[in-house]
Exostosin GT47 domain-containing protein (Urochloa decumbens), 422 residues
Amino acid sequence: MKMRSVLASAILAIATAAVLFLGSEAQEVKKDGHTDRISGSAGDVLEDDPVGRLKVYVYDLPAKYNTELVEKDPRCLTHMFAAEVFVHRSLLTSAVRTLDPDEADWFFTPVYTTCDLTPSGHPMPFDSPRMMRAAIRHVASRWPYWNRTEGADHFFVTPHDFGACFHFKEDQAVSRGILHVLRRATLVQTFGQSRHPCMQPAGRSITVPPYAPPQRMESRLLPPATPRSVFAYFRGLFYDAGNDPEGWRYARGARAEVWENFRSSPVFDISAERPGTYYEDMQRAVFCLCPLGWAPWSPRLVEAVVFGCVPVVVADGVVLPFHDAIPWAEAAVFVAEEDVPRLDTILTSIPPEEVVRRQRMLASPAVKRALLFQQPSQPGDAFHQILNGLARKLPHGEGVFLRPGQTVLNWTAGPPRDLKPW
């Protein structure tokens, strides 16, 4: 333990110096008057301008599918699933929007499937399949574009825990599967696991971050010189007694392992209580733990990046937001779920220069912008990353358009409870 503390102290000292140098509002390095870009696996895409590269037609649906739901419950604008609302709003004023559907590359159907909230503010997606099916039936009966491709040139925002399976419990989501009528569409979905039955393959879907309030986080920024005196930080549930009384299904046991192994560690600051200083505390930490919960994702990843705290991702097979644009391997630390009992050794063994390098990547304003749904939208933000993803999928392949008379549309596929009129 003494050696471990020495290592932790050494890393803290150098990491603190790095923060003092970089600051929470560090600027991108400029050379010869040009801004250096952050390169991802698909090339320089963080700053790509989607305007002029694609046109999107936004279906005008009855208000009961979208705006009426927000008026009924404004909490839809602030919870982690709010991307569906902000993508719609941003598209309505975007330069990529076209009012002529005949010239559109993509069609967007704005359905707010997470706005049916419980008193505690959690989405109840039981009505979501019926709502989505009814919206598609409306689109298919009033415009010719869905039927000519069976939705292959359409995209939807499905920000549930398990995407277009529309259920918050994984076993029930998997048994339901992706809603049949969405099988050919492109899904803009929150990050999940590769090869998961509820997640489209990476080449089909666009993986996005959950919503985290930009203005609220910006208002809580500490001075750039604030030292990072906490080594590893986490606030959140370790057990979900209500849904997992045995205590080891939740987070596949990863969070329980964190608590059992490190609740008394001198280099870990962990608790189930979230204080009013949560945002400030993250800015005082070197590492922020981002373990899976019932689903592999949460706003913690976005918060950690915004506050310059190196994310420690504990979620096997996770697919992170905009993985073809953000070099996550250079910004975050990935720890296998089975290695959680060794988490202290893993983190204290990272060379100080590696910590500094990750902090430098996190200090890039371009990386921060790419994870935020700004209102109004700004160049390079999460909305523009979605548009970039759509643009990279053009032109549509030869198999997009159905031959005359060809269709596999099946309105009756799905559980009987999903077929009632909405």
